[in-house]
Amino acid sequence: MKSNWCRMQVEATSRNLQYLYAVIDSTPEQEWDVYGIDGHAVRSLTDGAVSAVVSDLSRSRIRPERRHLAAHRQVLERVMARTSLLPLRFGTIADDAEAVRRILFLHQERFMTQLNRVAGSVEMGLQVSWDVPDIFEYFIEREPELRRLRDRYFGGQVRCTQQDKIQIGQLFDQVLNEERDACTRRVENALVRTCVEIKRSACRNEREVMNLACLVERDKNEQFEAAVVEAARLFDNHFAFRQSGPWAPHNFVDLDLET
Amino acid sequence: MANVMKSSDSSNLAEMVARILDKGIVIDAWVRLSLIGIELFLVEARVVIASIETYLKYAEALGQTTGKLKYAGAIGLPAGKWTPANEIELVPHAG
After folding, report:
1. How large is the ipTM?
2. What is the pTM of this model?
Protein backbone atom coordinates (compact mmCIF):
# COMPACT_ATOMS: atom_id res chain seq x y z
CA MET A 1 0.00 0.00 0.00
CA LYS A 2 2.68 2.39 1.10
CA SER A 3 4.89 1.87 -1.93
CA ASN A 4 1.85 2.34 -4.14
CA TRP A 5 1.14 5.63 -2.45
CA CYS A 6 4.74 6.74 -2.99
CA ARG A 7 4.49 5.88 -6.67
CA MET A 8 1.34 7.92 -7.02
CA GLN A 9 3.09 10.86 -5.45
CA VAL A 10 5.97 10.60 -7.89
CA GLU A 11 3.61 10.27 -10.83
CA ALA A 12 1.56 13.20 -9.70
CA THR A 13 4.55 15.49 -9.68
CA SER A 14 5.91 14.27 -12.99
CA ARG A 15 2.46 13.99 -14.51
CA ASN A 16 2.54 15.04 -18.08
CA LEU A 17 -0.60 15.01 -20.19
CA GLN A 18 -0.14 13.34 -23.56
CA TYR A 19 -2.03 14.34 -26.67
CA LEU A 20 -2.48 11.37 -29.05
CA TYR A 21 -2.36 11.61 -32.85
CA ALA A 22 -2.01 8.11 -34.19
CA VAL A 23 -1.11 4.47 -33.62
CA ILE A 24 1.56 2.92 -35.86
CA ASP A 25 3.64 -0.26 -36.12
CA SER A 26 6.24 -0.48 -33.39
CA THR A 27 9.15 1.97 -33.72
CA PRO A 28 11.92 2.78 -31.25
CA GLU A 29 10.76 5.61 -28.95
CA GLN A 30 11.93 8.68 -30.82
CA GLU A 31 11.20 12.27 -31.73
CA TRP A 32 9.60 13.11 -35.07
CA ASP A 33 10.66 16.06 -37.20
CA VAL A 34 7.36 17.88 -36.84
CA TYR A 35 5.76 20.05 -34.18
CA GLY A 36 2.47 19.18 -32.60
CA ILE A 37 -0.28 21.12 -30.86
CA ASP A 38 1.03 24.28 -29.13
CA GLY A 39 4.39 23.68 -30.83
CA HIS A 40 5.33 20.71 -28.62
CA ALA A 41 7.76 18.06 -29.85
CA VAL A 42 6.15 14.96 -31.32
CA ARG A 43 7.47 11.56 -30.29
CA SER A 44 6.49 7.93 -30.25
CA LEU A 45 5.77 5.77 -27.20
CA THR A 46 6.05 2.03 -27.67
CA ASP A 47 4.72 -1.12 -26.09
CA GLY A 48 5.30 -4.41 -27.86
CA ALA A 49 4.24 -4.43 -31.49
CA VAL A 50 2.66 -0.97 -31.66
CA SER A 51 3.58 2.65 -30.96
CA ALA A 52 1.57 5.78 -30.33
CA VAL A 53 2.49 9.17 -31.78
CA VAL A 54 2.03 11.79 -29.06
CA SER A 55 3.11 15.19 -27.80
CA ASP A 56 3.06 16.80 -24.35
CA LEU A 57 0.12 19.01 -23.63
CA SER A 58 0.01 21.70 -21.00
CA ARG A 59 -3.76 22.15 -20.98
CA SER A 60 -6.33 19.66 -19.75
CA ARG A 61 -8.97 20.31 -22.41
CA ILE A 62 -8.68 21.34 -26.01
CA ARG A 63 -10.94 23.35 -28.27
CA PRO A 64 -11.30 22.37 -31.92
CA GLU A 65 -9.78 25.58 -33.18
CA ARG A 66 -8.39 25.80 -36.68
CA ARG A 67 -4.76 25.94 -35.56
CA HIS A 68 -5.14 22.83 -33.39
CA LEU A 69 -6.92 20.92 -36.15
CA ALA A 70 -4.24 22.00 -38.60
CA ALA A 71 -1.47 20.88 -36.22
CA HIS A 72 -3.19 17.52 -35.75
CA ARG A 73 -3.51 17.11 -39.51
CA GLN A 74 0.10 18.10 -40.11
CA VAL A 75 1.43 15.51 -37.69
CA LEU A 76 -0.68 12.82 -39.38
CA GLU A 77 0.66 13.88 -42.77
CA ARG A 78 4.26 13.74 -41.66
CA VAL A 79 3.87 10.34 -40.04
CA MET A 80 1.86 9.02 -42.96
CA ALA A 81 4.69 9.91 -45.33
CA ARG A 82 6.80 7.34 -43.51
CA THR A 83 4.46 4.61 -42.35
CA SER A 84 0.86 3.42 -42.23
CA LEU A 85 -1.11 4.80 -39.32
CA LEU A 86 -4.41 4.68 -37.48
CA PRO A 87 -5.55 8.24 -36.74
CA LEU A 88 -7.10 9.08 -33.38
CA ARG A 89 -10.12 11.30 -33.10
CA PHE A 90 -9.24 14.90 -32.33
CA GLY A 91 -9.04 15.75 -28.64
CA THR A 92 -7.76 12.47 -27.21
CA ILE A 93 -5.64 13.18 -24.14
CA ALA A 94 -4.04 10.66 -21.77
CA ASP A 95 -2.97 11.37 -18.19
CA ASP A 96 0.64 10.39 -18.86
CA ALA A 97 2.99 8.30 -20.99
CA GLU A 98 2.37 5.20 -18.86
CA ALA A 99 -1.37 5.35 -19.59
CA VAL A 100 -0.56 5.47 -23.31
CA ARG A 101 1.73 2.44 -23.11
CA ARG A 102 -0.95 0.61 -21.13
CA ILE A 103 -3.60 1.15 -23.80
CA LEU A 104 -1.15 -0.03 -26.47
CA PHE A 105 -0.58 -3.15 -24.42
CA LEU A 106 -4.28 -3.76 -23.72
CA HIS A 107 -5.46 -3.48 -27.34
CA GLN A 108 -2.36 -4.63 -29.17
CA GLU A 109 -4.15 -7.21 -31.35
CA ARG A 110 -6.95 -4.93 -32.39
CA PHE A 111 -4.47 -2.24 -33.37
CA MET A 112 -2.51 -4.72 -35.42
CA THR A 113 -5.59 -6.03 -37.21
CA GLN A 114 -6.60 -2.49 -38.15
CA LEU A 115 -3.07 -1.59 -39.20
CA ASN A 116 -3.04 -4.58 -41.52
CA ARG A 117 -6.29 -3.42 -43.03
CA VAL A 118 -4.89 -0.02 -44.03
CA ALA A 119 -1.26 -1.00 -44.64
CA GLY A 120 0.13 0.68 -47.74
CA SER A 121 -3.12 2.51 -48.48
CA VAL A 122 -4.40 6.06 -48.24
CA GLU A 123 -7.89 7.46 -47.99
CA MET A 124 -9.24 9.44 -50.91
CA GLY A 125 -12.41 11.48 -50.61
CA LEU A 126 -14.98 11.83 -53.36
CA GLN A 127 -17.85 14.18 -52.89
CA VAL A 128 -20.47 14.62 -55.59
CA SER A 129 -22.97 17.48 -55.55
CA TRP A 130 -25.82 18.68 -57.71
CA ASP A 131 -24.51 21.68 -59.54
CA VAL A 132 -27.89 23.34 -60.13
CA PRO A 133 -29.18 26.77 -59.13
CA ASP A 134 -32.09 25.35 -57.09
CA ILE A 135 -32.22 21.72 -56.02
CA PHE A 136 -35.97 21.92 -55.35
CA GLU A 137 -36.72 23.20 -58.87
CA TYR A 138 -34.47 20.47 -60.21
CA PHE A 139 -36.53 17.72 -58.61
CA ILE A 140 -39.85 19.41 -59.35
CA GLU A 141 -38.89 19.32 -63.04
CA ARG A 142 -37.96 15.66 -62.89
CA GLU A 143 -40.51 14.07 -60.55
CA PRO A 144 -44.17 14.16 -61.64
CA GLU A 145 -45.48 12.98 -58.28
CA LEU A 146 -43.62 15.71 -56.42
CA ARG A 147 -44.98 18.23 -58.92
CA ARG A 148 -48.52 16.94 -58.49
CA LEU A 149 -48.36 17.39 -54.72
CA ARG A 150 -46.73 20.81 -55.08
CA ASP A 151 -49.56 21.92 -57.38
CA ARG A 152 -52.16 20.50 -55.05
CA TYR A 153 -50.86 21.95 -51.81
CA PHE A 154 -49.35 25.18 -53.01
CA GLY A 155 -51.47 25.83 -56.08
CA GLY A 156 -54.03 27.78 -54.11
CA GLN A 157 -56.80 25.21 -54.64
CA VAL A 158 -56.79 23.80 -51.15
CA ARG A 159 -55.50 24.98 -47.83
CA CYS A 160 -52.18 23.30 -47.07
CA THR A 161 -52.11 21.77 -43.60
CA GLN A 162 -49.08 20.93 -41.50
CA GLN A 163 -49.69 17.27 -42.33
CA ASP A 164 -49.68 18.03 -46.07
CA LYS A 165 -46.40 19.85 -45.70
CA ILE A 166 -44.86 16.93 -43.85
CA GLN A 167 -46.12 14.59 -46.59
CA ILE A 168 -44.58 16.57 -49.44
CA GLY A 169 -41.39 17.16 -47.46
CA GLN A 170 -41.12 13.47 -46.78
CA LEU A 171 -41.67 12.63 -50.43
CA PHE A 172 -38.89 15.01 -51.39
CA ASP A 173 -36.61 13.37 -48.84
CA GLN A 174 -37.46 9.95 -50.26
CA VAL A 175 -36.94 11.00 -53.89
CA LEU A 176 -33.68 12.67 -52.93
CA ASN A 177 -32.35 9.58 -51.18
CA GLU A 178 -33.42 7.19 -53.94
CA GLU A 179 -31.65 9.35 -56.49
CA ARG A 180 -28.57 9.55 -54.29
CA ASP A 181 -28.52 5.81 -53.89
CA ALA A 182 -28.80 5.14 -57.64
CA CYS A 183 -26.03 7.65 -58.41
CA THR A 184 -23.80 6.27 -55.68
CA ARG A 185 -24.09 2.75 -57.02
CA ARG A 186 -23.04 3.92 -60.47
CA VAL A 187 -19.98 5.66 -59.07
CA GLU A 188 -19.06 2.76 -56.81
CA ASN A 189 -19.22 0.39 -59.78
CA ALA A 190 -16.85 2.63 -61.71
CA LEU A 191 -14.37 2.85 -58.82
CA VAL A 192 -14.51 -0.56 -57.22
CA ARG A 193 -11.63 -2.08 -59.16
CA THR A 194 -9.19 0.61 -58.01
CA CYS A 195 -10.16 0.56 -54.31
CA VAL A 196 -9.49 -1.74 -51.39
CA GLU A 197 -12.70 -0.54 -49.74
CA ILE A 198 -15.33 2.13 -50.30
CA LYS A 199 -17.37 3.70 -47.52
CA ARG A 200 -20.39 5.96 -47.73
CA SER A 201 -20.71 8.83 -45.30
CA ALA A 202 -23.93 10.71 -44.67
CA CYS A 203 -24.59 13.74 -46.87
CA ARG A 204 -24.32 17.08 -45.12
CA ASN A 205 -26.88 19.03 -47.11
CA GLU A 206 -29.56 18.43 -49.72
CA ARG A 207 -27.29 19.36 -52.63
CA GLU A 208 -24.86 16.61 -51.79
CA VAL A 209 -25.31 13.44 -53.85
CA MET A 210 -22.71 11.29 -52.16
CA ASN A 211 -19.81 11.49 -49.85
CA LEU A 212 -17.44 8.59 -50.36
CA ALA A 213 -14.25 7.59 -48.63
CA CYS A 214 -12.09 5.28 -50.71
CA LEU A 215 -9.24 3.21 -49.36
CA VAL A 216 -6.70 3.16 -52.19
CA GLU A 217 -3.31 1.50 -52.38
CA ARG A 218 -0.65 4.16 -52.69
CA ASP A 219 0.62 2.88 -56.02
CA LYS A 220 -2.90 2.63 -57.46
CA ASN A 221 -3.73 6.27 -56.86
CA GLU A 222 -3.29 7.17 -60.53
CA GLN A 223 -5.71 4.46 -61.58
CA PHE A 224 -8.13 5.67 -58.95
CA GLU A 225 -8.02 9.23 -60.25
CA ALA A 226 -8.56 8.00 -63.80
CA ALA A 227 -11.55 5.97 -62.59
CA VAL A 228 -13.02 9.11 -60.99
CA VAL A 229 -12.88 10.84 -64.36
CA GLU A 230 -14.52 7.79 -65.97
CA ALA A 231 -17.26 7.89 -63.34
CA ALA A 232 -17.83 11.59 -64.02
CA ARG A 233 -18.44 10.73 -67.70
CA LEU A 234 -21.54 8.79 -66.60
CA PHE A 235 -23.13 12.02 -65.36
CA ASP A 236 -24.22 15.23 -67.05
CA ASN A 237 -23.16 18.71 -66.05
CA HIS A 238 -25.87 18.95 -63.38
CA PHE A 239 -23.34 17.12 -61.24
CA ALA A 240 -19.98 18.22 -59.87
CA PHE A 241 -17.30 15.84 -58.59
CA ARG A 242 -14.78 16.91 -55.98
CA GLN A 243 -11.92 14.64 -55.15
CA SER A 244 -9.78 15.18 -52.07
CA GLY A 245 -6.82 13.50 -50.43
CA PRO A 246 -4.68 11.66 -49.79
CA TRP A 247 -5.86 11.55 -46.19
CA ALA A 248 -4.97 9.32 -43.27
CA PRO A 249 -7.48 6.42 -43.26
CA HIS A 250 -9.91 8.16 -40.88
CA ASN A 251 -12.94 6.35 -42.29
CA PHE A 252 -11.38 2.91 -42.17
CA VAL A 253 -10.61 2.64 -38.50
CA ASP A 254 -13.35 1.03 -36.48
CA LEU A 255 -12.02 1.09 -32.95
CA ASP A 256 -13.97 2.20 -29.93
CA LEU A 257 -11.72 1.44 -26.98
CA GLU A 258 -12.05 1.21 -23.23
CA THR A 259 -9.22 2.30 -21.01
CA MET B 1 -19.89 15.14 -68.40
CA ALA B 2 -19.74 16.21 -64.77
CA ASN B 3 -16.97 18.58 -63.84
CA VAL B 4 -14.15 17.06 -61.73
CA MET B 5 -12.24 19.20 -59.27
CA LYS B 6 -9.27 18.14 -57.19
CA SER B 7 -8.40 19.60 -53.84
CA SER B 8 -5.30 17.99 -52.57
CA ASP B 9 -4.53 19.77 -49.31
CA SER B 10 -5.86 21.29 -46.15
CA SER B 11 -7.49 24.09 -48.14
CA ASN B 12 -10.49 21.85 -47.89
CA LEU B 13 -11.52 22.78 -44.39
CA ALA B 14 -14.91 21.08 -44.20
CA GLU B 15 -13.43 17.81 -45.39
CA MET B 16 -10.67 18.03 -42.83
CA VAL B 17 -13.03 18.83 -39.97
CA ALA B 18 -15.39 16.00 -40.89
CA ARG B 19 -12.49 13.58 -40.70
CA ILE B 20 -10.39 14.79 -37.81
CA LEU B 21 -13.30 15.56 -35.49
CA ASP B 22 -15.63 12.70 -36.29
CA LYS B 23 -13.58 9.77 -37.51
CA GLY B 24 -10.74 7.68 -36.15
CA ILE B 25 -9.90 5.66 -33.05
CA VAL B 26 -12.13 6.60 -30.14
CA ILE B 27 -11.00 6.26 -26.55
CA ASP B 28 -14.07 7.66 -24.87
CA ALA B 29 -12.61 8.30 -21.45
CA TRP B 30 -9.76 10.28 -22.97
CA VAL B 31 -11.70 12.63 -25.20
CA ARG B 32 -11.40 16.01 -23.54
CA LEU B 33 -12.97 18.44 -25.92
CA SER B 34 -14.13 21.84 -24.94
CA LEU B 35 -16.92 22.85 -27.29
CA ILE B 36 -17.66 26.21 -25.73
CA GLY B 37 -17.67 28.95 -28.32
CA ILE B 38 -16.54 26.77 -31.21
CA GLU B 39 -16.41 28.37 -34.60
CA LEU B 40 -19.44 28.21 -36.83
CA PHE B 41 -17.80 26.20 -39.58
CA LEU B 42 -17.60 23.24 -37.20
CA VAL B 43 -21.33 23.25 -36.71
CA GLU B 44 -21.98 23.57 -40.44
CA ALA B 45 -19.77 20.62 -41.19
CA ARG B 46 -21.96 18.35 -39.12
CA VAL B 47 -24.60 16.15 -40.70
CA VAL B 48 -28.23 17.23 -40.83
CA ILE B 49 -30.54 14.43 -39.80
CA ALA B 50 -33.94 14.17 -41.45
CA SER B 51 -36.71 15.16 -39.07
CA ILE B 52 -40.14 16.74 -39.13
CA GLU B 53 -38.36 20.06 -39.11
CA THR B 54 -36.41 19.09 -42.21
CA TYR B 55 -39.58 17.95 -43.98
CA LEU B 56 -41.24 21.27 -43.21
CA LYS B 57 -38.21 23.11 -44.49
CA TYR B 58 -38.34 21.08 -47.70
CA ALA B 59 -42.08 21.76 -48.04
CA GLU B 60 -41.46 25.47 -47.67
CA ALA B 61 -38.79 25.37 -50.37
CA LEU B 62 -41.00 23.31 -52.70
CA GLY B 63 -43.79 25.84 -52.21
CA GLN B 64 -41.45 28.45 -53.64
CA THR B 65 -40.74 26.55 -56.85
CA THR B 66 -42.24 27.79 -60.10
CA GLY B 67 -41.19 25.05 -62.53
CA LYS B 68 -44.05 23.57 -64.65
CA LEU B 69 -46.62 25.25 -62.47
CA LYS B 70 -50.09 24.04 -63.39
CA TYR B 71 -52.52 26.37 -61.69
CA ALA B 72 -50.69 29.67 -61.83
CA GLY B 73 -52.78 30.93 -64.74
CA ALA B 74 -55.99 29.46 -63.42
CA ILE B 75 -55.98 31.48 -60.24
CA GLY B 76 -54.50 34.58 -61.74
CA LEU B 77 -51.37 34.58 -59.64
CA PRO B 78 -48.82 37.06 -60.85
CA ALA B 79 -45.69 35.39 -62.17
CA GLY B 80 -43.27 34.96 -59.34
CA LYS B 81 -42.78 32.95 -56.22
CA TRP B 82 -45.40 31.25 -54.12
CA THR B 83 -45.44 31.95 -50.47
CA PRO B 84 -47.72 30.40 -47.87
CA ALA B 85 -48.93 33.92 -47.07
CA ASN B 86 -50.28 34.72 -50.53
CA GLU B 87 -51.72 31.24 -50.76
CA ILE B 88 -54.04 31.84 -47.81
CA GLU B 89 -55.09 35.19 -49.23
CA LEU B 90 -55.87 33.69 -52.60
CA VAL B 91 -58.07 30.84 -51.42
CA PRO B 92 -61.32 32.87 -51.21
CA HIS B 93 -60.84 34.34 -54.69
CA ALA B 94 -60.14 30.93 -56.14
CA GLY B 95 -63.48 29.59 -54.89
Report:
1. 0.79
2. 0.82
